[in-house]
Amino acid sequence: MKNMDLILGLATILGGIAALWYFKDKLFQKNKDVNIQLRPHRLSLYNETREFLDYCSTYRTKQLSSMVNGTQQLVIKIDTFKKKVDQLGPLSMPEVENKIAEIITNAW
For the chain, what is the domain count? Predict the structure, then answer.
């Protein structure tokens, strides 16, 4: 009887470990699928951010050489960038979303 209880307890523990392993693998696969689906949006966000930062970094030079008229074009560019970021939706990257908010506030 003692051996039977030991075998039953061991089988229960192994079954629990197998179930945990299965759910962990299933959760990992789900996160992997979400990341794969978000890649094009994340790449688009990266490209938009890079273009916006390039525009902001060269804005003062363009303003001094009269390539832009006042701050109206900068405001339009900021609004356009905000709209594009909002269209992409949440991308499960809180650090990047915080950085984009910082970029927008520092664009002035």
Answer: 1
**Whole-angstrom Cα distance, residue 42 to residue 90?**
10
Q: Give the residue numbers spanning the domain of 88.
A: 2-106
> pLDDT tens digits, residue range 49-64?
999 999 988 888 888 8
- pLDDT tens column, 7-37: 777 778 878 887 777 777 777 666 666 667 7
CA atoms of 62 and 100, how far apart (whole Å): 23
| Dist. CA 96–CA 101, nearest whole Å | 9
Distance CA 108, CA 98 (A): 17
Residue 62: how many other CB atoms lie within 10 Å: 13
3-state SS string over 16-27?
HHHHHHHHHHHH
Burial class of 70 by CB neighbour count within 10 A (0 to 12, 13 to 18, 19+): exposed
CA dist., res. 82 & res. 48, Å (int): 10
Token pair, residue 78, equals: 């900021």
